[in-house]
Amino acid sequence: MKLYDWAAAPNPKRLRMFLVEKGLKVETVQVAGDGFVLTPEYKAKYPQAMVPMLELDDGRQIGESIAICRYFEELHPNPPMLGRDPYERAIVDMWERRAFDQGMTAVAEMFRNSNPYFKDRGLAGFANPVPQLPQLVDRGRASLEKFFQRFDEQLGKSRFIASDVFTLADCTLYCSIEFAGWVSVSIPDDCKNIQRWWTEVSDRPSAKA
Ligand SMILES: N[C@@H](CCC(=O)N[C@@H](CS)C(=O)NCC(=O)O)C(=O)O
How many Cβ atoms from other residues are within 10 Å of residue 164's Cβ? Predict the structure, then answer.
């Protein structure tokens, strides 16, 4: 199997973190060319035009970071990264989705609607060309402020975001906050719980995935 990847991008990184935590190695193929653009060959192969994508040896394709993680979790259940019982699986899903919707998406709104490399690429994927909408930069910034407050509150209740074990939800949260650095936003000074969590997660080998 092959994992189609873009080393600098946040979504593929959350999958790579997951794989490191699982102790899995997968052959990767880098598909971003110059100027933060996916190569024409890759877009022809995978018209959804996003990374990551996993291609099995028989050519079947699995897109979407979470779908790929679920596939690996089924094949290699240990260590569990998506929850250990029905309740925990639901809670991991819940926090993972929130980290993506409230964190990653807010940063993407700011980044994609302001960065010159993303002119006419306001959304990832096949929907391009999509014009940049400068108003979304302010909306993303406001969403990000709320995101930090909410996640700080949650991290005051447990060691990791969904429970006391490290899960995919932490990978998504970590990559969202790292991505915030791309728009010069860092963890607010008053978010002591996120800062405590960030220091701990940064020391894990997967943080360098
Ligand atoms: N929902 C997708 C999002 C994937 C995504 O947005 N990937 C970005 C990189 S972080 C991408 O492929 N962008 C292509 C582009 O901007 O042209 C997932 O979770 O995998």
Answer: 7
Residues 111 and 201 in one domain: yes
Tokens of 21: 């935590």
**How far is 196 from 62, CA to CA, in rounded Å?**
35
Does residue 129 have a cis bond before it (omega within 30 degrees)? yes
Q: Which domain holds residue 91?
A: 86-208
Tell which one of 50, 93, 109, 172 to mutate to probe ligand 1, the residue whose CB is within 8 A of the most ligand atoms.
50
Atom of ligand 1 nearest to the CA of 65: 20
Does the N-terminal peptide bond of residue 52 adopt cis geometry, omega within 30 degrees of 0? yes
The ligand 1 atom at the shortest distance from the C-alpha of residue 66 is 19
Judge contact between 71 and 62, C-beta under 8 A: yes
Whether residue 65 sits in one domain with residue 27: yes
Give the tens place of pLDDT for each residue, 126-157.
Answer: 777 899 999 999 999 999 999 999 999 999 99
Is-above-0.85 flag for pTM? yes
Domain check: are 95 and 158 in the same one? yes
- Are 128 and 38 in contact by the 8 Å Cβ rule? The answer is no
Check whether residue 9 and residue 35 sit in a common domain.
yes
The Cα 94–Cα 162 span in angstroms is 8
